[in-house]
Amino acid sequence: MGCQTEIAEQIVDKDGDYVLALKDNQGHLCEDVTLLFDDLEHSSYKAYDYDYAKTVDKNHGRIEIRECWTISDPEVLRHLRGASNWKKLVTVSRIRSQRWVGEEKSVEDRYHIASITGAKRVLWAVRSH
Questions:
Q1: How many folded domains does the chain comprise?
Q2: Which of 4, 38, 52, 114 is 20 to 30 A off residue 28, Cα-Cα?
Q3: What is the rounded radius of gyration, in angstroms, for the C-alpha atoms of the chain?
Q4: Of 37, 11, 47, which is closest to residue 92 (Cα–Cα)?
Q5: Please, which residues bridge with residue 112 across strands?
Q6: pTM of the model as a whole
């Protein structure tokens, strides 16, 4: 994780912003963010303030839906283990991708940390990468 936090710091030091995927090897932070969004979903989206954006793409015989939820409340984020290691971390996100090809449906959740706010911005940044 040390290398990744250094990269984020270098980006911020050069006046840039980051949206970085969280993976299991990032330990407690990944676990906490996953639990945070599970809690949000199980509360019918009432547990925390959040932002939401959605895109729908239809092409090449498939439909892709991407939904993004972001939480940027500093009081919530300060309780995430490992969050303080990331310079300018202001948002955590979950992006749920649903894909239909014919009758086949797949669903995948991915989690991110970011130095930007807003579900639409995070979703765009991940999509344009």
A1: 1
A2: 52
A3: 15
A4: 37
A5: 21, 93
A6: 0.91
